[in-house]
Amino acid sequence: MVKIVGDFSVNAEPVEAVLGFFSRIGLSILRVGLSFVLVFVGVKMMLVDVDKIPIGASLGMISGILLLSVLASLSSQRRAAEDSIDEAI
Fold first, then answer.
1. Is 58 in contact with 44 (CB distance < 8 Å)?
2. Domain count for the chain
3. How far apart are the first and last CA of the chain?
4. How far is 30 from 36, CA to CA, in rounded Å?
5. pLDDT of residue 86
6. 7, 17, 29, 66: which could join 73 in a potential S-S bond, CB 3.0 to 4.6 Å?
7. Which domain holds residue 68?
8. pTM higher than 0.70, yes or no?
Protein backbone atom coordinates (compact mmCIF):
# COMPACT_ATOMS: atom_id res chain seq x y z
CA MET A 1 0.00 0.00 0.00
CA VAL A 2 1.63 3.23 -1.17
CA LYS A 3 0.32 6.62 -0.16
CA ILE A 4 1.60 9.90 -1.50
CA VAL A 5 1.58 12.63 1.12
CA GLY A 6 2.83 15.95 -0.19
CA ASP A 7 6.33 15.36 -1.50
CA PHE A 8 6.73 12.08 0.37
CA SER A 9 5.85 8.58 -0.78
CA VAL A 10 4.90 6.30 2.10
CA ASN A 11 5.13 2.56 1.51
CA ALA A 12 3.64 0.54 4.37
CA GLU A 13 4.24 -2.95 2.96
CA PRO A 14 7.77 -3.43 4.35
CA VAL A 15 6.58 -2.41 7.81
CA GLU A 16 3.70 -4.89 7.61
CA ALA A 17 6.10 -7.63 6.52
CA VAL A 18 8.46 -6.92 9.42
CA LEU A 19 5.56 -6.90 11.89
CA GLY A 20 4.30 -10.23 10.55
CA PHE A 21 7.75 -11.79 10.76
CA PHE A 22 8.41 -10.66 14.32
CA SER A 23 4.96 -11.69 15.52
CA ARG A 24 5.62 -15.20 14.19
CA ILE A 25 8.84 -15.53 16.15
CA GLY A 26 7.20 -14.14 19.27
CA LEU A 27 8.50 -10.59 19.52
CA SER A 28 5.08 -9.13 20.26
CA ILE A 29 6.23 -5.95 22.01
CA LEU A 30 8.24 -5.04 18.93
CA ARG A 31 4.99 -3.79 17.38
CA VAL A 32 4.86 -1.07 20.01
CA GLY A 33 8.49 -0.15 19.34
CA LEU A 34 7.92 0.05 15.59
CA SER A 35 4.88 2.23 16.13
CA PHE A 36 7.02 4.63 18.21
CA VAL A 37 9.63 4.63 15.43
CA LEU A 38 6.97 5.46 12.83
CA VAL A 39 5.61 8.27 15.02
CA PHE A 40 9.14 9.65 15.48
CA VAL A 41 9.81 9.56 11.74
CA GLY A 42 6.46 11.21 11.01
CA VAL A 43 7.11 14.01 13.50
CA LYS A 44 10.60 14.46 12.08
CA MET A 45 9.14 14.76 8.57
CA MET A 46 6.62 17.35 9.75
CA LEU A 47 9.32 19.40 11.49
CA VAL A 48 11.79 19.35 8.59
CA ASP A 49 11.10 23.02 7.77
CA VAL A 50 11.05 24.16 11.41
CA ASP A 51 14.06 22.39 12.89
CA LYS A 52 16.50 19.82 11.55
CA ILE A 53 17.22 16.84 13.77
CA PRO A 54 20.78 15.56 13.19
CA ILE A 55 21.08 12.19 11.46
CA GLY A 56 23.12 10.72 14.32
CA ALA A 57 20.46 11.69 16.84
CA SER A 58 17.73 10.17 14.66
CA LEU A 59 19.60 6.92 14.20
CA GLY A 60 20.38 6.79 17.91
CA MET A 61 16.73 7.33 18.81
CA ILE A 62 15.49 4.70 16.35
CA SER A 63 18.16 2.19 17.41
CA GLY A 64 17.39 2.78 21.08
CA ILE A 65 13.65 2.32 20.59
CA LEU A 66 14.16 -0.90 18.64
CA LEU A 67 16.70 -2.23 21.13
CA LEU A 68 14.40 -1.56 24.09
CA SER A 69 11.42 -3.16 22.37
CA VAL A 70 13.39 -6.29 21.39
CA LEU A 71 14.74 -6.64 24.94
CA ALA A 72 11.24 -6.17 26.39
CA SER A 73 9.86 -8.80 23.99
CA LEU A 74 12.56 -11.30 24.91
CA SER A 75 12.02 -10.62 28.61
CA SER A 76 8.27 -11.15 28.32
CA GLN A 77 8.86 -14.39 26.39
CA ARG A 78 11.19 -15.65 29.11
CA ARG A 79 8.71 -14.68 31.82
CA ALA A 80 5.87 -16.44 29.98
CA ALA A 81 7.98 -19.58 29.58
CA GLU A 82 8.85 -19.57 33.29
CA ASP A 83 5.19 -19.11 34.22
CA SER A 84 4.14 -22.03 32.02
CA ILE A 85 6.82 -24.23 33.62
CA ASP A 86 5.64 -23.22 37.11
CA GLU A 87 2.04 -24.07 36.16
CA ALA A 88 3.08 -27.48 34.88
CA ILE A 89 4.80 -28.38 38.16
1. yes
2. 1
3. 48
4. 10
5. 61
6. 29
7. 2-88
8. no
